[in-house]
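Researcher: Structure for this, please.
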Amino acid sequence: MIADHEIRAVTNATGVAAAVERIYGAPLEAMRGVLHVTAVWRDPGGTLITLNVNDQTPRCDHDAFALGVARARADAIVTTGRVLRAEPALSHALPGPAKLPAALADWRRSLGKRKPPLSVILTRSGDVDFDHPLFGGGHRAVLYTSEETAERLRSRAAERGVGVIADRSPSLRQAIARLEGQGIDGVAIEAGPSTARTLYQAPLAVDELMLSIFEAPDLAPEVRGGALGTEAMLDAHLPHRSPPYAVATRDGNWSFSRRLR
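Model: Predicted structure, token format:
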């Protein structure tokens, strides 16, 4: 079992590359296709329950590292208006303790990526707070919504420098198709389980999963989100998996793996 604090020793791109290979068993390059990155808890029945982000969420530097690696490899990050409402402090900046964000930024540049990923927010209702930290600060963001909602949001969005993409029938799959049509090749999905599950329906719309599992016998009800599915479901869709990498934290044990088609 590896101690969680070891990730704090990562200070540059070389350290990130070494940690990536240690955790996932192979080097990682810039993303191609669609990557789902998520943290879950396995309940006693074997269902993978997405972790809500709040004051009671178990903390793990390796989980922050996994999220940062996914973001560093991506050209676009897709989330939802619901996530923004649930996480008023959410940022798509590279996360982590100590010098890790700067190290991840160096590693991203080593992958040939010179500007931050585009943030894409799926919203049907248009219920978004334009003072949310995901907007502004020079960070590129786009709202993806229905044609009717787009008309209502365009003026306010323009004031904040936020783009708006309208679609007759907006969905996660349609958003991915629009991004791919614009030449965006690596799309990371940071969405709740009800949205993310649609990736696993036929025809499969996900190429890779970076999965963090909090290995504990119980979890506070406030931290329990929706169900993603079971590991058997993941095995059926993304059968190629790296060996689980076990990490010990103050809050409990975690395991990390990467799954591919």
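Researcher: Any notable elements?
Model: The chain is about 30% helix and 25% strand. The domain at 2-113+170-260 is CATH 3.40.430.10 (Dihydrofolate Reductase, subunit A).
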